[in-house]
Amino acid sequence: MRVSGSDSRTENGSREGSSMNWKRYWPATAIAVVLFWLAGVAVGSPAAGAAALELESTSVTLTKPDGDLQHAAGAHPDFRFFFAVRKQGSLPVASLRNMGLRLPPGLFGNPLAVPRCGASEFLDVTIGPSPLCPTKTQVGTARLVTVGKNNIYLPIYNLAHGTDMPAKFGLVYYGVPVYITPEVRPTDFGVTAGSLNSNQGEDVLSADIRLWGVPADPVHDSERGLPGFPTVPGFPISVDIPMTPFMRNPTSCSEESQTFVAEGNSWEEPNLFAVSEISSEPFGRPLAFENCEDLGFAPTMTASSTSSSADAPTGLEVDINVPQNDFSVSRDHFADGNPVSLDSPDGRATSDVRKVVTTLPEGMTVSASSAQGLGACSLAQIGIGSNDPPTCPDSAKIGTVLIDTPVLEEDLEGVVYLAKQKENPFNATLAMYMAVKGPGFFLKLPGRVDADPNTGRLTATFDNTPQLPFEHLHLELKSGARAPLVNPRTCGTYAIKGEFVPWSGTAPVVAESTFQVDQGCAAASKFSPGLKAGTTNPQAGAFSPFLLRVTREDGEQNLAKLSATLPEGLLAKLAGVAICSDAQASTGECPTASQVGKVTVGAGSGTNPTFVPEAGKPPTAAYLAGPYKGAPYSLVVKVPAQAGPFDLGTVAVRNALHINPVTTQVTSVSDPLPQILEGIPIAYRDVRVEVDRPQFIVNPTGCEAKKITSTIGGSGGATASPSAPFAAVNCERLGFKPKLALKFTGKTHRSAHPALKATLTMPKGGANIDKAVVLLPQTEFIDNAHITTPCTRVQFDAGKCPKSSILGTATATSPLLDQPLSGPVYFRSNGGARELPDLVADLDGPIHVTLVGFIDSVKTGKETGRVRTRFLGIPDAPVSKFVLRMKGGDEGLLVNNTELCRIKPRAKAEFTGQNGKRSVSRPRVKLGCGKSSRKR
To answer: What is the largest CA-CA distance in the chain?
Structure first.
């Protein structure tokens, strides 16, 4: 609105004479709306109930300098706010104390558009009724009508202020300064401003507040005041300052009218507020903004990894630039005392950024190494919706942010915090907050981070950002060993993509920035994991915890599958151990009684992987489970995926425990290791298995050098077979005293076919048997006529041996098992490798074991040929009792060559222990002979 001529204006726009008393017309209070950039503290809702103060009328008008309405988005309107209180007679119903106005988001003023008036100048009224503020610091006028006084236009000045507020404005009446400070609402990033504590001795009836869209515009020359004096109608005053816009419309458009909210209270009832919502101009036009499609929007982005090494922890630097059409030089206007020229004030602002979506290249993922020692910020600690400083722990800091805005003198500095998992505005696993400290406010912006569940590719989204301008934003995520990100595994050129969505509703702008990964490239083609394994106490035959550790170098293919084969004789005592059921094994919720050990997993890139479990976190566990994938037993490894602030649930990996039936060697074959959980890759660097159940793992009783072998698969398909040496010690200290008892039953006469029972017993704590050679008495031959069709190897492997090939049964009892092993004894062909078929005991029970014996006839000294049975390479496994029963009669393999009861037949037994000790005995064969049998 223009003021010209020789007189001032009344409330309805009519002019009054210019002759007036300055003190008489100096207003009792100042009501102003000052708009400012940035978000901070929410303004609370008015108190409930009827307010003592009553508003008769309120209005908001946005105009061009010529008086036409100015609703164009991003334009720079002259702003007018008018209100009148309800009167009872000539007096107001209540005495006005404060009046404020809440503006829609995006409508604000730039306090750097004009210079500032110093505190001493503002408080100096020695020359006239107005402050001694320079004319060029004026941003508008205020006209108040009070009881018994005429009205006058009073200058509103841009004032110097401290760091505890974004801006400060003021005017003076009767020597009393009235300060106006804006507040920024964090809920919608709009601005609320108003006067504080009006003069209680002056009852305000109405106020007309006018702020200039472009204070330097000559159109306002007639509204300016001189230092010490208010506006002098008819005396235009020019200023030599840049044509920098002060007011700015929002850069978003909607058919719906925007709402302004006037709120006022009284001295009598300060806790009760009169509230008036304004959504249209005085002549009924909705307060909606238009022509957003004409706004410029050209953001650019550069982004790069802070490390150039493949598969290494890395930070991230992102720079976003948004050229500003109107405010780009405002911070430098008065830096050197010389005004800076600017284009016409009729220009339009650049659209504000509404949404930023940043997509990292595939392969750049969350670093598991960052979890150790990392904290997280809860919703209560960040305090979104309040102007309180965040109370997030320092351990939750993952980066910094710097914002350069043209409407503040200093850059805004802030911190990037990791948000607490699931306890964030998105209920997401990954999220972060930008908390930026401004003068008198905090800008707190939540950002969602989505991780592709299959690849781990990261996309960060900040949506509904403030409708406020910034020229440059620099975000930096910390680097070093605990950096939150990790580079791709292979070298090359990678692109970071940014998508910027404007508040204007026009098309998004897509930008792309590339960076190089060119260090540590050779490791990507390598796969040479390391293996360390063994018992902590290698004493032969003793129980001892067993440790196995697999490591991988940084940059190599990830571990994908593990299998390990233990040496002969390194066994487990399964007796007395509870078994985890299949249903329990699927979730890892196995009973404690089935636990046999624990696991530690180190994951992450760089020199400091994160280890699970951490102190205070749930322990890992390894449980014994039942049959799985053709193996008689399995191992369930339960790893709670909890590290730092992350809880990704429980990972249960099952390992089939295959047992070689000939050597009883155990081979553990894992299921594929999970490569990613909730979009967070698991870079296995160090896997440690500790089987530490008391009296569980037992060492061999043979001390020859052995190996623990493995087959390890990589995520890229590579395979490695590292091994670790193993040997028990002090085997010679073990005793070795096997005892064999033989018994023939059935007919004893010549040509009869006796049944045989052989019972072998072993004392506790000695060495296990390696070889067993038994020569039957000279009284026994093999009856070739009873050798029918032996079982072939194919039939044996298929479990389909003919009944006629069964020679007897065998039972083995071991202290390592709850139940004995038993099964048939077959005559099995050997493909002509030996003259006679082999004697094979096929034993089933908790495990399956096959014992192979060789049968032949030998001469010893002057003796005639004797039937010999040899068991060579017996597994290094403890057996407390072994019973072999051979059929007699028509199915008997043995035949007497003399009357047994006339002699006392003896066998010869020679046993060799796993520790090399030998035991030779000549056990007498028990016979069922009576007196008559002996006479015969």
So the answer is: 163
Residue 21: how many other CB atoms lie within 10 Å:
11
Residue 336: partners with Cβ closer than 8 Å, 6 or more residues away: none
> β-strand 571-572 against 697-698: which pairing, if any?
antiparallel
Count CB atoms within 10 A of the CB of residue 148: 10
77-129 pLDDT, tens digit each: 999 999 999 998 888 999 888 899 999 999 999 999 999 999 999 999 888 78
pLDDT confidence bin for 204, thresholds 50/70/90:
confident
Residue 811's SS3 state is strand
**What are the tokens at 150?**
């005429």
Q: How far is CA 105 from CA 131, 183, 442, 500, 543, in A?
A: 32, 13, 16, 19, 74
For residues 439 and 165, the answer to whether their CB atoms sit within 8 Å is yes
Q: Is 657 exposed, middle or buried (0-12, 13-18, 19+ CB in 10 A)?
A: buried
**Measured between alpha carbons, how far apart are the two ends of the chain, in Å?**
146
What does the pLDDT read at residue 345?
Answer: 62
Q: What is the DSSP letter of 113?
A: S
pLDDT confidence bin for 487, thresholds 50/70/90: very high
Instruction: Give pLDDT tens digits for 391-442.
Output: 999 999 999 999 999 888 889 999 999 999 999 999 999 999 999 998 888 9
Please state, in angstroms and rounded to a whole number, the distance separating the CA atoms of residues 668 and 464.
53
All CATH 2.60.40 domain ranges of the chain, comma separated, are: 526-732, 734-935
pLDDT of 201 strictly over 80 = no
Tokens for 49? 């109930």
Domain covering 734-935 in this structure, CATH number: 2.60.40
Read off the amino acid at residue 337. Answer: G
- 676 and 453 Cβ atoms separated by less than 8 Å: yes
In three-state secondary structure terms, 524 is helix
For the segment(s) 526-732, the CATH number from 3.40.50, 2.100.10, 3.30.2420, 2.60.40 is: 2.60.40
Do 911 and 808 meet the contact criterion of CB atoms below 8 Å apart? no
31: nearest Cα among 70, 85, 69: 85
Residue-wise pLDDT for 2-29, tens only, equals 222 223 333 333 333 333 333 332 222 2
384: three-class secondary structure by DSSP: coil
Q: What is the pLDDT of residue 931?
A: 55
Nearest to residue 767, comparing CAs of 841, 699, 843?
699
Question: How far apart, in Å, are the Cα atoms of 871 and each of 755, 773, 830, 849?
Answer: 20, 6, 15, 14
912 contact partners, CB below 8 Å, separation of at least 6: 769, 770, 771, 772, 918, 919
- Residues with Cβ within 8 Å of 40's Cβ and at least 6 positions away in sequence, in order, are 166, 183, 184, 185, 186, 387, 438, 440, 441, 442, 443
Cis peptide before 674 (omega within 30 of 0): no
CB 475 within 8 A of CB 303: no
Show the tokens assigned to 610.
């994160």
257: closest CA among 294, 295, 290? 290
For residues 535-558, average pLDDT: 94
Q: Strands 176-184 and 191-195, how do they pair?
A: antiparallel
pLDDT digits (tens, 9 = 90+) for 749-759: 999 999 999 99
